[in-house]
Amino acid sequence: MEVQWIGVKPPKLGSPHAAVSLIFSMLLAVLSTQALEMSVGKIPFLEALNGSTVTLPCTYSSCIGIKNLYFNWQFNNNGTMQKVCESVIRSEGVVPDVSIYRDRVAFVGKNQNHNISIMLWNITFEDGGQYTCFGRNPKEMDKNHSVVFNLIVVDELRVVDNTLTIIIASAVGGAIALLMGFMLLKNFTLFVLSKLEEKNKECLVTSSGIDNTENGLSGSKAEAKTTPKKK
Question: Rounded to two decimals, what is the model's pTM?
Answer without folding.
Answer: 0.59
